[in-house]
């Protein structure tokens, strides 16, 4: 392979330098920055998997013939480098999720403290009842059949009042929904909805154990 061809190949399969730089700095990131980085890492992984799929190759497919020679029907060097990058990014993503969980716990601990304090800062004690929010802040624009949202009987055009401890006053442009969902993967989340003028309560369990993508299988848009 000529030097220019090798250089072009390296440019096509290497991890984007700006993404690599942000990954190196992730331990100093705030939660919102981690969520953006998570999306970008997943996009890079999806791009790599698309290249493998185009060549009919998976992460464990053999790259040599039965008699030990490199396969001639695929780009062995490109695939090898992509597989290496995929494994690196998966490790980075796992580290990111662990870091996110730590920050999520801190975030929701602070939220819980605030909800149990009065305006003057005194603790309200155990006598208080949970606030029942009634103002919707988002709506459901899509629900995938068989998804966790579908199983929770969440429907298109439902208006979201609260999910877990996230509501109209603290959803932060819907970012806190993603935080709550990640933190409660495979755990039940209480959800309050407005449908046809009536408030409904259901239980949603974010999960990856279904045939589609994501933890919810629905699209949520801000009102």
From TrEMBL:
Record-annotated PDZ domain positions: 128-185
Superkingdom of the source species: Eukaryota
Any Gene Ontology CC annotation: nucleus
One Pfam match: PDZ
Statement: the UniProt record of this protein carries the keyword Chaperone: yes
SUPFAM superfamilies from the UniProt entry: PDZ domain-like
InterPro entries in the record: Nas2_N (IPR040815), PDZ (IPR001478), PDZ_sf (IPR036034), PSMD9 (IPR035269)
Membrane-spanning intervals of the chain: none
Keywords recorded for this protein, A-Z: Chaperone, Proteasome
Limits of the Nas2 N-terminal domain: 31-108
One Gene Ontology biological process: proteasome regulatory particle assembly
PANTHER family, A to Z: 26S PROTEASOME NON-ATPASE REGULATORY SUBUNIT 9 (PTHR12651:SF1)
Protein name in UniProt: Probable 26S proteasome regulatory subunit p27
Species whose genome carries this gene: Saccharomyces pastorianus
